[in-house]
Amino acid sequence: MTMTWLLLLCLILLFGGQRSSACPDLCSCKDGQVDCSGRSLTSTSIPTSFPSGTISLLLHDNLLTTIPNQLLDDLTSLRSISLHGNPWVCDCGILYLRSWISRRPSSLVSHPRVSCSSPPSLRGRMVEHLTEGEVLESCQYWYCDLALASVVALFVFVVVQAALLVALIIFLRRFETLSKEAKRTTEEGFTAGDAHRENDYEHLKDSSI
Known about the structure:
Blueprint: H1 2-21, E1 28-30, E2 33-35, E3 56-58, E4 80-82, E5 88-89, H2 95-102, E6 109-110, E7 116-118, H3 132-208
Parallel strand pairs: 2-3, 3-4, 4-6, 5-7
Antiparallel strand pairs: 1-2
């Protein structure tokens, strides 16, 4: 059992190491440069990892609004990065990128214009110059939008449930009416049958006399 676990651990480390050194499918790699520029990458389609030996990383001219947390932390050999030309949304999601830029080594070369595209109050501001208070204030609007969307969804849900309840009540009343009509028709049928049999009996009785 111990040997099996050791073998499994070795395989995980082996394939993990291969993945960390592999070039992402949406990018091109050469001599330590990983070029992912102009690929219409979004914050959800951006590669989940880059080669551990990446020296230069090009992410400019995409559709990035945020950078996933910890994505850049393991790139210890990184010397140059380009992030301009992306529609950065400076709300809570920008905190990781802001923090990473602020603690970058002095040897790291970063292209300019890593600036906010939204919200309107922060448009044009450089991400690295944002204060934590400004970012958190922009998050409040996001929470308000989320709360409003939740209220609207709840209202729609209540309306749908009310409509279903009304439809059920109408159906039950209609079913009750139909049941009463069917019962009355059945009773009338039995009454008419009894009267018919009684008339036949009287007719036979009169005939026998």
